[in-house]
Structure formats: C-alpha cells, structure tokens
Amino acid sequence: MTKKFLNKVVVVTGASAGLGKAISVAFAQEGAHIGLIARNKSRLKKTRKEIESYHVKALDCVCDVSNAELLEKT
After folding, report:
1. Read out DSSP for 19-62?
2. Which of 6, 41, 46, 72 has the most CB atoms less than 10 A away?
3. pLDDT in tens, 19-55
4. Distance CA 40, CA 10 (A)
5. Which residue, among 40, 39, 31, has the nearest Cα to 7 in the 3D structure?
6. How many CB atoms sit inside 10 A of residue 68's CB?
7. Is the torsion defined by CA of 35, 21, 29, 42 positive or negative?
8. CA-CA distance, 6 to 61, in Å (whole number)?
C-alpha cells in the first residue's frame, strides 16, 4: 500500500497530546516527516520518540503559538 504523505513535511501545533498528537502520529504512519510544536517539553519529547518509531524524521519545538512574541523569537 502506498503511503499518502511519503517524504512530505508537515508541521503540527499542539502535538504533545490529544488531537495534535493523534494528527502527528497519523501523518507519520503515512510517511510524513513532522515538525512538532507544543508547550510541554516532556510530553513533546515522548511524542517525537513515538513518531520516530515510524521511521520518519521529527523535530520538536517548545513554543506557545498563541504568544506572538515567542513566535518572533523562535
């Protein structure tokens, strides 16, 4: 079966838990490399390790995207 997002790159906010994590995992299962963004560093790292188990690349970034000042610094 062909993976729909093989070697594509996606960025997911809120990636450390709930719907954001589920979306990240689903993209990874379809072959996408993932940019993970969330506020909780420890949960974000756990999500990254799970994503990497699908043999795709993952980059995690701790950031609160609702804070414009943080976005400018990131």
Report:
1. HHHHHHHHHHHTT-EEEEEES-HHHHHHHHHHHHTTT--EEEEE
2. 46
3. 999 999 999 999 999 999 999 999 999 999 999 999 9
4. 19
5. 31
6. 8
7. positive
8. 22
